[in-house]
Amino acid sequence: MLAILAAVLFLIALIFQLAVIGFGPLTATLLITAGLLCVALHLAGVGSRTWGR
Q1: How confident is the model at residue 52, as a pLDDT?
Q2: Residue from 11, 49, 1, 51 nearest 31 by CA
Q3: DSSP secondary structure string, 23-36?
Q4: DSSP symbol at 23
Q5: pLDDT value, residue 47
Q6: What digits encode the pLDDT tens for the residues 5-36?
Q7: Residue 28: Cβ within 10 Å count
Q8: Number of Cβ atoms within 10 Å of the Cβ of 15
């Protein structure tokens, strides 16, 4: 689930970069950082179904 969220964040960041837009504090850099955080959590096993067994 976190990997899908990261992919969506990266897609939105790409659109922001290509269109050269930003909404106040919501910039492409912020979205890329949030996407990388989601990827790191996914690789660490957070949110997986078998993690708590």
Answers
A1: 53
A2: 11
A3: BTTB-HHHHHHHHH
A4: B
A5: 75
A6: 899 999 999 998 898 887 888 888 899 999 99
A7: 19
A8: 12
